[in-house]
Every structure is written in structure tokens, then in C-alpha cells.
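Check out one such.
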Amino acid sequence: MTHSTLNMQCKSCGGTLKLDKERNVIVCPYCGAEELIVESDEKIKQQTKLLEWEREDKEKQEIEHKNYKNSKSGKVSLVFAIICSVLFAGSINQISGLPTALRTVTFFIQAALFLMSYLTRKEIIDLSGYIRLKAIKLPTLFMAAGFILFIAIAAFSTL
């Protein structure tokens, strides 16, 4: 015979009650207060519904997290990390002055940003303890910074 229990608080002392659905009376182990289960049915329904909502919310969050982790943005970050690494490797031998040196350093920074975006999105590294953002996710920020540097390089190359 299995017993299903829910945790509730005693009206009298605030202690934790073990509510057994198969019994007619709940007795508080701390103060001895008694309550009929018939009177508690609404509480049971509310707690059960709340637990169900919490479970559904957790499942939705897990699905959203999985979709985010495996999104195309992660692949884009990896592709751009490789492209920027190749550009960095190709430009390192062609440094002939400050503009080419800055462009080479920028390629390196971009490669690092895109790689960080990929690694944090795939949860290979965790920077949440060091950098806390509420409005935007860290991999998105890394990716945006990498693309902003692309715009900066394009603008300065035409000068």
C-alpha cells in the first residue's frame, strides 16, 4: 500500500505537516493540531496545481535552453572563429606598420570573441560566475562584439 504525501504548514504553529491523502485527519507532530482532509482538499489542489505549473515551467526552460545551446548561432560563431583565425595567421607575416598591426590584432581579438561565443553557448566553459548579464546572454554579446570589429576593420580599410 503506497502513501502519497504533500508538505503543508500547520495553521497553529507553522510546522511542516505530512499530509496523507488516504487518512481523514492530519495531525501536526509539533503542536498536535488536527485538520480534516476534507477541509484541506482545496490546499491540496492548489499545491498540486502549483507543483504541476513548476514542472511544466521547468520543462519549457529545459527545451528553450537545449534549443539555444544547439542553435545555428553557435555554428556561425565557430565558422567566424575559424575565418578570423585564418585571417590572423595570414596577416601576421604582412605586418609593415601600425595599420596592418592593428588589423592583425583585431583579427586575433575577433577569433577569440567568436570562439568564446561558441564555447560559452555549448557550455564548454562557464563564465557566469565572473560576468553576470540580465538583458543579454554572454555568447550573444561575444558574437556581437566580433561583428562590430568586422565593421570597424571594413571602415578603416577604406581610409
About this structure: The helical segments are 37-69, 72-91, 98-121, 138-157. The chain has a mean pLDDT of 80. The chain is about 60% helix and 10% strand.
